[in-house]
């Protein structure tokens, strides 16, 4: 009899979860686990909680939904808190397991967790599954990934690459192993924090419709395409307020409640049913950006986490007081302050304003891009290690921007994207 642990990471779903399906085939008893890692209790070097209230609240809903889904199939979910490399080997010993399966995450901390688990004697089996395209099917080796996004996209499109179809959930989950009391008392999980629900939000995750988990993710996908919003996506994607200006897939993609391949399959079905146009193409284009930052991690690994990034430039300057004003939305620049207030109040911000506020911090306030990236990590309900790191580096000119960094002029951005000042008025900065 083989008892195996399945460690859910950023893949909090049953459908199209190839890592889980593989674990189900390998085990006669399977123990699904979620670990609230060390990051949950951490204060960053910049002086704030590494995982903020919004992220904790949406994650709570996502885990509860996953847990109910597992229970409905005769399985269950054990939750632990603490560094996974400490608590998971202890859990494995308590239930008599030597094997652990999980998805692969190509980022330094996540890699280090696996190395430490292997050193602790666990046999760890990983499956890469978070991208749309399979890295092994790319027309170049991961080490040869073009460093410019357009070259990557052209190569993918020229090769006619099609993402694999999403897979159904496993028909059966292996039964749970016996769970001795010691296994369940290893590291209790703190309760979710209370928080405000701001009615101005563009992604009100506290409402059932936008809640974490697979059911809401798929209902949203259906709703989005049924309303044919993909056809107008390119024209509206630079919007600042409301639900419909962009797809809002990101919070579910980030937790893994929705797989990129499921989103893509729905997009293809939409194009088959209603025709492709520039709008629907642009959604594919943006999903390719998401893949690109993943593959960039496969190529460059830790180099993306140096202060100088790929440019190898030195440590950026930093002004702690200016950074604090930026975080609080008190810079005196109305568009920036409105964006920063929205982010702190709701955990979501449009792509346009993410670019504008990041550029302002780096290029106008001369602050360290890593502090900004850490603040986004703390706040965003769609925080994703690859996309966050990649975008911040790009804007700082320390990643793969062929122009060497982007500065957005806030006054010009306000004229173009908030001409009547409605957005600034909404957040009290007009
Ligand atoms: P849509 O515009 O509808 O796009 C559809 C999907 O395409 C998104 O869900 C996302 O998966 C992908 N996508 C779109 N733009 C990008 C992009 N620039 N980079 C990578 N993928 C993209 N996105 C995250 O998911 N998590 C992050 O932590 C994150 N941090 C960011 C930090 C900065 C400084 C910037 C400029 C962008 C960041 N983004 C991040 C990318 C982008 O802003 C969000 O993916 C997008 O705003 C999410 O809303 P949406 O799902 O409605 O996007």
Write structural notes for this entry.
The protein has helices at residues 18-26, 53-72, 84-95, 108-119, 149-158, 181-184, 214-226, 233-236, 250-255, 260-274, 278-300, 320-328, 334-346, 351-364, 369-379, 385-396, 410-417, 422-426, and strands spanning 3-8, 29-36, 78-81, 99-103, 123-127. The chain is of the alpha/beta class and 430 residues long. The protein has a 5-stranded parallel β-sheet, with helices on both faces. Helix 1 links the parallel strand 1 and strand 2. The protein is globular and about 65 Å long. The protein starts with a strand and ends with a helix. The structure holds flavin-adenine dinucleotide (FAD). The site of flavin-adenine dinucleotide has 28 residues, from helix 9, helix 11, helix 14 and helix 16. Flavin-adenine dinucleotide (FAD) is lined by residues 237, 246-250, 253-254, 283, 286-287, 289-290, 293, 351, 354-355, 358, 376, 380, 382-384, 387-388, 391-392, 395.
């Amino acid at each position: 009899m083989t008892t195996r642990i399945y460690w859910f990471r950023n893949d909090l779903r049953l459908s199209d979860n190839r890592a889980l399906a593989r674990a189900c085939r390998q085990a006669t008893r399977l123990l699904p686990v979620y670990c609230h890692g060390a990051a949950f209790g951490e204060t960053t070097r910049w002086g704030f909680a590494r995982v903020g209230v919004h992220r904790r609240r949406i994650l709570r809903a996502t885990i509860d939904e996953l847990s109910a889904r597992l229970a409905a199939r005769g399985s269950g979910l054990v939750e632990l808190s603490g560094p996974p490399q400490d608590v998971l080997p202890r859990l494995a010993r308590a239930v008599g397991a030597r094997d652990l399966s999980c998805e692969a995450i190509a980022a330094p901390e996540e890699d280090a967790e696996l190395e430490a688990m292997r050193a602790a004697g666990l046999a760890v089996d990983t499956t890469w599954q978070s991208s749309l395209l399979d890295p092994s099917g790319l027309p170049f080796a991961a080490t040869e990934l073009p460093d410019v996004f357009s070259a990557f996209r052209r190569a993918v499109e020229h090769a006619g690459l099609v993402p694999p179809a999403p897979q159904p959930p496993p028909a059966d989950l292996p039964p749970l192993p016996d769970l001795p009391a010691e296994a369940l008392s290893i590291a209790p999980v703190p309760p979710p924090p209370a928080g405000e629900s701001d009615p101005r939000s563009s992604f009100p995750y506290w409402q059932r419709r936008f809640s974490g988990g697979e059911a809401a993710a798929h209902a949203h996908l259906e709703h989005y395409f049924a309303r044919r919003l993909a056809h107008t996506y390119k024209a509206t994607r630079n919007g600042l307020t409301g639900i419909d200006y962009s797809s809002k897939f990101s919070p579910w993609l980030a937790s893994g409640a929705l797989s990129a391949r499921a989103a893509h399959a729905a997009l293809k079905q939409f194009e088959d049913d209603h025709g492709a146009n520039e709008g629907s193409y642009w959604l594919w284009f943006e999903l390719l950006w998401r893949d690109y930052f993943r593959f960039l991690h496969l190529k460059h690994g830790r180099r993306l986490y140096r202060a100088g990034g790929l440019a190898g430039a030195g440590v950026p300057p930093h002004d702690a007081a200016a950074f604090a004003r930026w975080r609080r939305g008190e810079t005196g620049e109305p568009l920036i302050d409105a964006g920063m207030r929205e982010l702190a109040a709701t955990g979501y911000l449009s792509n346009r304003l993410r670019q504008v506020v990041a550029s302002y911090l780096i290029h106008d306030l001369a602050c360290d891009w890593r502090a900004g990236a850490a603040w986004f990590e703390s706040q965003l309900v769609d925080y994703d290690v690859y996309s966050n790191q990649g975008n911040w580096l790009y804007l700082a000119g320390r990643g793969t921007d062929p122009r060497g960094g982007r500065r957005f002029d806030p006054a010009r951005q306000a004229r173009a994207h908030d001409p009547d000042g409605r957005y600034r008025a909404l957040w009290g900065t007009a």
